[in-house]
Amino acid sequence: MSTRGVVFVHSSPTAVCPHVEWAISGVLGTRVSLEWSAQPVASGQMRAECSWSGPAGSAGALAGALRAWSMLRFEVTEEPSPGVDGERFMHVPGLGMWHGRTSANGDVVLPEDQLRAVMAESGGSLTRRLDQLLGTAWDDELESFRFAGDGAVVTLLTHRVG
């Protein structure tokens, strides 16, 4: 089953940029050359993004490959495909990797059993745990990096629902 998604590298040291391209190329099985631009939020860092297509589960493989460089800030998305949920991976130095399932419109989907377990263990810390499940700290950290600066390539997610 084939699907598609987007890799957003929000910040990478210049020296690591070729390694990022090689890692993505290795997972997708085709040469990938990214258009890098300066990341205005982090001096000396670069940003890039690219659309990809491949078998379902490729987002996990891409995130796993990029995770080798712990200083990267990145997101990898995968659109839902027949019988397979969409996925979103985010990595932030100091927070590590976050993974969530996504619906057709891109919302994070929390399984009922996960919510029930959190509610049972929360004892007043429900908000903190739900924020963790939703990836709030990762979203907050990456938000300023998501803005595409002047002249940066912007990749839009496209998925027709229905």
TrEMBL record:
This is DUF3145 domain-containing protein. It comes from Pseudonocardia ammonioxydans. It holds the Pfam family DUF3145. It comes from the Bacteria. InterPro entries: DUF3145 (IPR021491).
